[in-house]
Amino acid sequence: MVHDSPERPTPAPKTDGKTDGKTDGEAAPKPRRSAKSDLPQDDLTLDTSDVDPETSATEEEDDARLPEASEDATETIAEGTLSIGHEAIENAVRLAPTSPGVYRMLNAANDVLYVGKAKNVKKRLSSYARANAPLPARILRMIAATTHVEIVSTTTETEALLLEANLIKQLRPRFNVQLRDDKSFPYILISGDHWAPQILKHRGAQSRPGRYFGPFANAGAVNRTITALQRAFLIRSCTDGFFESRSRPCLLYQIKRCAGPCTREIDFPGYTELVREATEFLSGRSHAVKQLLAAEMEKASGELEFETAALYRDRLAALSAIQSQQGINPRTVEEADVFAIHQEGGYSCVEVFFFRTGQNWGNRAYFPRAEKSFTPEEVLSSFLAQFYDDKPPPKLILLSHEIEESALLADALSVKAGSKVEVSVPKRGEKKELIGHALTNAREALGRKLADTATQSRLLEGMVTTLGLPHTPKRIEVYDNSHIQGTNAVGAMIVAGPDGFMKNQYRKFNIKSEGLTPGDDYGMMREVLERRFKRLLKPPEGEAGKPKDRADDESFPQWPDLVIIDGGRGQLNAVREIFENLGLTQVSLMAVAKGPERDAGRETLFMPDREAIKLEPRDPVLYFIQRLRDEAHRFVIGSHRKLRKKDIREAGLQEIPGIGPSRKRALLHHFGTLKEIERASIADLGKVPGVSAESARKIFEFFHAQPG
Question: Which phi and psi angles does 259 have, rounded to 5°?
């Protein structure tokens, strides 16, 4: 789907009096690269709040984790409890309206058990109140737990559907189908607030002027497409500030991924034409764009301008690469989302394909939480309403199964989109083939997830045997610290459970204690753990006594079963003392000490009141513990580097001992940017006028110091 955002006045290109219309500045992209990249990167923002959720530890998005197996549908219902539930619902029926609305069933603790909608609320609640009605065991359990009902009236049934979806996503009721891992989707933005538009990946509110193309299934699909579009259309991807500061072309110009508008390697009309071609391609007119490029290639070849012809050839190859990566590109479907559901072993997988402008912009698997008694149609119906709660729907939605309220859903989404939305189950032709392809992907995705979950479960069970844990851990938290001589100290927590690493649960902690001695690892760990567990120990407002587990998902608690730290017996004793001071007795502790010369496979495990544990180098449990520790180390080092780079940008080169304003100017004049200074070797730094060999060494060591 293409969105235009309101444009602000576009500043004209700056000129310096020359007749070629060139401007000052530079275009450099923002690819994800290592610290040694020679390409400029955008500023990294860092949230310095007390606990900062890190939800994008990797650019490729992981599938949602598989939910805990649902409850047994044959569970016995206590007759007395069921009668209390019927009585509570009967009381609600007396006051219920006969108009459309949404109802919430709550238990004695005021937790929402179920959110439902109805065209006639009174009639729907009456169906629950009948004592001898043949209802599924899932509904009977819900009734038995209900103590009161809350009702919200709406004007239309369409409004009730939209409100129900919103409340389910907010409240996560136990007896509803729950959409999980609902991350926002990325878009491609071609900006409209600069004379030389920028191409970039965008998430969130579409407030910046320009044209938005999407959604794409994941960030990886966007990154691959942008890289290919740069090769095909040579559009810049650098920030406006970086663009304006350039005096010579960057590396992207040299490798033919940017036209170099920043240093006037291309004039304004020429760059505008490139932007127009890119917009046409993303808008679905790819065939016309490729025909134009092919004609230009033939023309240049006929005029013996072989270098120009080769440039057009490479651009055509880049466009072909985009379409080949997209796989299926339907001929008869311009804009649609395709949903297919597969159920197996009590679990559901919904595979979603996105088609925009006749192109396949990726697919993604979801694993909604639903009890075994839900049919595919029921899961899909509830999933769709929640899926589009915060997303613009396309013109066409194709489903693998007929859902009961498809007409109502189409009306609700049409209201939301401001244009007609069609919901259908294709029976033949290309659309039916798209559904079949999505069903195959759903079946394979669920199979992979079930296999991964089984492997992870065996490892967790192995930890119980090997480490003597009281029960199989559902939540493992691993902690690590990072700093350089006490500066930019940061702590981090990673989380793992039955379905692997839970990256949306990761946290980083900027160390705030002023009294810490630089490099005091014990003090840093004390601050991190106290900040983490004091939050859990503090009861919710209005409650007292035993701390309440405030997790949204009962299958994956907020309280850890096992805490792992990087260190030896000393670190273990320090953490044990912290836990004793906090009154934590139900959490198992373990420290992992590296082997001699940091040799992986020779680690020693320490647990309270036990002898040190040495596992065989090829023990699967040891491999698993190594993975946990290494993931914590990776995450904390990344967090530390972001914090340190922010400080370097703010303080500049003057933070380096012996580097004053004169040498700073000389370095920037020679290399152009701080990023290029960072990647320079000692020999390159020594070539700068006024920089001695000793100064070059200090500069290099400043940028390449290893965090502890």
Answer: -80, -10
Record the tokens describing residue 666, joined without a space.
């000389």
Q: What's the rounded Cα separation, in Å, for the pair 135 and 594?
A: 58
Query: What's the pLDDT at 656?
Result: 66
Collapsed DSSP state (helix, strand, coil) of residue 211: strand
**Strand 101-106 and strand 148-153: pairing?**
antiparallel
Which 3 state secondary structure label does DSSP give 681? coil
Measured between alpha carbons, how far is residue 31 from residues 41, 222, 225, 238, 250 in Å? 7, 11, 12, 10, 13
Q: Are 548 and 467 in contact (CB under 8 A)?
A: no
Rounded Cα–Cα distance for residues 136 and 691 (Å): 80
Whether the Cβ atoms of residue 593 and residue 567 lie closer than 8 Å to each other: yes
For 421, what's the count of Cα atoms within 13 Å in the CB-facing half-sphere? 22
Smallest CA-to-CA distance from 200 within 228, 237, 235, 233 is with: 237
Spatial CA neighbour of 57 closest among 178, 172, 183: 183
Cβ atoms < 10 Å from Cβ of 577: 12
Tokens of 597: 């010369």
Task: Look at phi and psi of residue 210 and say left if phi exceeds 0, alpha if psi is from -120 to 50, else beta.
Answer: left
| Tokens of residue 379, six digits | 């899961």
Q: What would the pLDDT profile of 318-371 be if each residue is shown by its tens digit?
A: 666 655 555 565 667 778 899 999 998 788 999 999 888 777 778 889 999 888
Residues 457-509: pLDDT tens digits? 888 888 888 888 888 898 999 988 775 554 567 788 899 888 888 888 888 88
Choose among 341, 297, 314: nearest CA to 257: 314
Q: How many Å apart are CA 477 and CA 560, to the nearest integer? A: 6
The single-letter code of the amino acid at 148 is H
Which amino acid makes up residue 593?
A: A
Q: CA-to-CA distance for 352 and 514, rounded, in angstroms? A: 50
Burial state string for 531-564 with b = 16 or more CB within 10 A and e = fewer than 16:
bbbeebeeeeeeeeeebeeeeebebbebbbbbbb
Q: Is 661 exposed, middle or buried (0-12, 13-18, 19+ CB in 10 A)?
A: exposed
Q: Is the backbone of residue 679 left (phi > 0), alpha (psi -120 to 50) or beta?
A: alpha
Number of H helices, E strands in the chain: 20, 20
93 vs 90: CA distance, rounded Å: 5
pTM surpassing 0.85? no
Q: Which residue has the higher pLDDT, 695 or 702?
A: 695
Cα–Cα nearest to 442, from 336, 347, 341, 369: 341
Q: Give dist(CA 144, CA 267) in Å, integer.
A: 74
Q: How far apart are CA 93 and CA 78, in angstroms?
A: 23
Poorest-pLDDT segment among 52-61, 361-370, 666-675: 52-61
At residue 50, φ and ψ (nearest 5 deg) are -55, -50
Q: Could you tell me which residues come within 8 angstroms of residue 494 by beta carbon, excluding any fewer than 6 positions away?
A: 477, 478, 501, 506, 628, 631, 632, 635
Q: Angle of helix 157-171 relative to helix 376-387, nearest 10 degrees?
A: 90
- Contact between 377 and 402 under an 8 Å Cβ cutoff? The reply is yes
Strands 52-53 and 507-510, sheet pairing: antiparallel
Residues of the chain with pLDDT > 90: what percent? 14
**CA–CA dist 497, 280 (Å, integer):** 46
Q: How far from 25 is each of 30, 256, 410, 676, CA to CA, in Å?
A: 16, 17, 49, 16
Q: How far is CA 672 from CA 253, 316, 649, 665, 678, in A?
A: 15, 33, 14, 10, 11
